[in-house]
Amino acid sequence: MSGPAEVRCMLMRGGTSKGAYFLADDLPTEETVRDELLLRVMGSPDPRQIDGLGGAHPLTSKVAVVSPSTDPEADVDYLFLQVAVDKAVVSDRQNCGNLLAGVGPFAVERGLVRAGSSETSVRIRMVNSGDFATATFPTPDGRVDYSGDTEISGVPGSAAAVVIEFPPREGQLLPTGNVSDTVAGIQVTCVDNGMPTVLIPAEALEVTGQEDPKDLETNGELTARLHEIRLEAGKLMGLGDVTETTVPKLTLLSPPRHGGAVTTRTFIPARVHTSIGVLGAASVAAGLRIEGSVAHGVAALPEEDDRLRIEHPSGFTDIESSIDRTPEGGLRARRTAVVRTARKIFDGTVFPVPPTGGRS
C-alpha cells in the first residue's frame, strides 16, 4: 500500500511555523504507510522540497494530525510529526507548540468542535507527550476569525490572538533530578516543561549567544561540541540514544539586550531556530525560575511579575511562568501561558508525488 493519490489538507501558519494539518481519518492508519505518504506530500527528501508542500526548513516541514479525543479531559487529540527536509524521516518524538496554535481553529473548521458565538476554547491532548493545553480564540458569529491586531516576533503583520494555557505537568521539571549537571565538561540545566531542553550559558562555549543563526550553524567546532552535549544529555534525561531524534533541544543563554529576561539561541538540533518554539520557551522560562540553575547570573528576572520576555533572533516571546514544589519536595510548573497567532493559508486537496516518481 502507498496511501491515497490525493488527500484533504489545510495549510496553516501556527505561531512562527507552518505546516500541513490533516484529520486522522484522512490519512492511512498504518504508521509506515502514513509516514511514506507524508514524505511525498512534503517533498522529502530534497533540500528544496521542490515537489511538495515543505518550505525547505524544519520550521516549514511540519504536520499536525487531529482527531476527536477519547480522553474526557480533551476535545481533540493532536499528533505532531516532524518531516525531515533532506532525509526520509518522519518523527513523533517531540511536540510542537507553534503548530499547536492552529489546532483549535482547525478543529472548529473541520467540525470537530462547535464554535461559540464570540470565542471558543478547545481542550487539546498532545499525543506525543500526553500533555494538555487549552487554546482560546475569537469566533464571532460562530466562525473562526483570523484577523486581529496581535503581533508576534518572527511573523509579519498581525492576526487574532490565540491564548494557549498549559495546566501543571505531572512529569518531572528536572528530568535528571538535578538543578545542574556537568555534561561533556559543561555545566548545564536539563529541564522539561513540555519540551526536553538543555540550557547552556553561551559563554561556556566561547560564543556570545548574540550571533546570527547562520554564523552559529557554520561554526564547526561549536556544532560538534553541541552534538556531544546533546547525546550525553539525552541519556541523562532518560531519552536514550538521541542521535536520530530532534530532542532534546539545546538553548544557549546570554544576558538580555532589549529589556527582556534572557537572550536565546536554540538548536533544533543542528539548525538554529529563527525565533523559539512555544514549548521550548515554556521550558526556558521554567528553567529561569529555578534557583541555582545555570540561568542565574545570566538572566534578568522580574521580581514580582510572572511574565517573562524571552529574546530570540527575530524578536521576543512573552510567556507567563511560575513554579512551585510538589508534596514530595520536587519542582513543577504551576502555570504556563503564552499568546500566539495562527492563520489558515489554504484548504483543499494535496496531490502527493506518486510513489514511483523520481527525485533528483
UniProtKB/TrEMBL annotation:
Taxonomic superkingdom: Bacteria
Keywords: Isomerase
InterPro entries: OMA_tautomer-like, PrpF-like
Pfam families reported for this sequence: PrpF
Molecular function GO terms recorded: isomerase activity
Coiled coil: none
EC numbers on record: 5.3.2.8
Gene3D superfamilies per UniProt: Diaminopimelate Epimerase, Chain A, domain 1 (3.10.310.10)
Family: Belongs to the PrpF family.
Protein name: 4-oxalomesaconate tautomerase
Organism: Streptomyces griseicoloratus
